[in-house]
Amino acid sequence: MTAVGSRGPLTGKRIMVTRAKSQVQELVDKIERLGGGAYAFPLLKMIPPADKTKLDEAISELPSYDWVIFTSVNGVRFFLERMEQVGVGFAAFAGKIAAVGPKTAQALTKHGLSVAVIPSDYVAEGLLASLHEQLQPGQRVLLPRADIARKALPAELKELGLAVTEVDAYQTVIDGSRAPEAAQQLQEGRIDVILFTSSSTVTHFIQAMAPFASPGWLDQVRIACIGPITAETARKNGLAVDVVASEYTVDGLLEALLENLGGN
C-alpha cells in the first residue's frame, strides 16, 4: 500500500482501488494527490478476444456502418489496435462515431477521429437519449465492446429499427492473484473505503474474496460506486453502498466520496 499522504481532504484515509491493471494507476495517483493512501487491488485484466473472426469481419465492413458506438476507453484501444494489425486505416470510419463519456471520446480524438456525439450522462442510456434524434430505422450500427458488456444499449437500438452488430473488441478476465493479501488488509482494518468503477469489478471482487469473507467483515468499510448501475450490482451482491457518484467518472467518484466523508 502507498503511504497515506500528509495533506489534503483524504488525509488519514486508506482506499482500496479495484480497477483493471491497465487503469489502476490513474486512480491511485488522484487519491495520493488528495492526501490519501491507496491500495491497488486490480481485479481485471483486458485481453484480445480468443476468436477475432467477427471483429475482423466488422473491421473489413467498417465503411458500410452508419454509426460506430464506443462505450469505453478499452473498446477504443483494442478496436483501433486490431485495425492497425490487419492493415485497415482509420479513414475506413465512413459513418459517424459516438462515445460514452469524455475519456472515451478523447481516446478517439487523439488518433484524429471525429466524435459526433458525447452524452452528458456517461452511461449507455444517456448515449441513447443523445443519439435519438439522429438515428434512422434501417441504419447500420457497430458496437465494439467487452465480452461481458450489458445488453441494454443494443436491445434498445434494435427496438428503434436499427441493424445492430455487436463484436467483442476485448475480453475481461479475473485476476485474483492478490486476493489473500487484499483480504488481510481488510480483516486487519487497514482499509477505510473500497472504490468500485464498474459492475464487473464488483462481481470479480465478490468471486475473488469469497474464500476470505465472513459475517460483518466489511461493516467498517465504506463502499463507493462510480454510478447507479455499479451500485445496484454491489447491493445485489450483499454490499452496503455508502457513496454513488452523480457524474459517472473517476473524478465524479472521488468528489462524491469527499462529500460523503465530510471531514470524518
How many strand units? 10
- Give the topology string: H per helix, E per strand: EHEEHEHEHHEHEHEHEHEH
Count of distinct structural domains: 2
Cα shape: elongated
CATH topology tier name of the largest domain: Rossmann fold
- What is the strand content? 15-25%
Major sheet: arrangement of strands: 2-1-8-9-10
List low-pLDDT spans: none
Level of helix content?
Answer: 25-40%
Class per helix and strand makeup: alpha/beta
The CA-CA distance between the termini, in Å, is 21 Å
CATH class annotation of the largest domain: Alpha Beta
Radius of gyration based on Cα positions = 20 Å
Number of helices: 10
* Quaternary structure of the protein: single chain
Set down the secondary structure blueprint.
Blueprint: E1 14-17, H1 24-33, E2 37-40, E3 44-47, H2 53-60, E4 67-70, H3 73-85, E5 96-99, H4 102-109, H5 124-131, E6 140-146, H6 152-159, E7 163-174, H7 179-187, E8 193-196, H8 199-209, E9 222-225, H9 228-236, E10 243-244, H10 250-261
Parallel strand pairs: 1-2, 1-8, 4-5, 4-6, 6-7, 8-9, 9-10
Antiparallel strand pairs: 3-7
Helix pairs in contact: 3-4, 8-9
